[in-house]
Design brief:
- This protein has 138 residues and is mainly alpha-helical.
- The chain has one domain.
- The longest helix is centred in the N-terminal third of the chain and has 80 residues.
- The radius of gyration is 33 Å and the shape is rod-shaped.
Length: 138
């Protein structure tokens, strides 16, 4: 009888030790996956911020160039046509035409490339392929 109780006690301690070890490993596993998720989120957020910053810089430079070219065009046309107001009106007309063209083709010129870039950031093909291979190996 004494031997059975001792065996039960040893088995219980052995089970508790394994359970505590499993609990510790489970916590480490969850912590590692949380760290991985944080790092992937930070990577994607950094890519988005860099993309938006570069987009803002490109739009700013483009705007400055268009304004300066407009001033040069208006001054040149005023020397050809005679008055500055005619040059400015012609430049404004050209700008309205360009804005209309950009508005008509906004999907293919602006929206689709930006969405494609965000899809590349969020749904990285290499990352998806690696996850598929890991699932097949398991």
């Amino acid at each position: 009888m004494q031997g059975k109780l001792k065996t039960k006690y040893i088995m219980k301690n052995h089970f508790v030790a394994h359970f505590q070890e499993l609990k510790k490993l489970g916590k480490e596993y969850i912590d590692l996956h949380l760290s991985l998720a944080k790092m992937e989120s930070m990577d994607r957020l950094t890519k988005i911020i860099v993309f938006l910053l570069l987009l803002f810089i490109a739009i700013s430079f483009f705007s400055i160039i268009v304004i300066l070219l407009g001033i040069v065009f208006a001054l040149w046309f005023s020397s050809v046509a005679g008055t500055l107001s005619q040059g400015i009106l012609l430049y404004v007309g050209i700008l309205i035409l360009l804005v209309t063209i950009f508005y008509i083709f906004r999907e293919s010129l602006f929206i689709n490339p930006i969405l494609r870039k965000f899809n590349m950031i969020f749904f990285d093909e290499n990352n998806i392929k690696n996850q598929d291979h890991e699932e097949q190996d398991a």
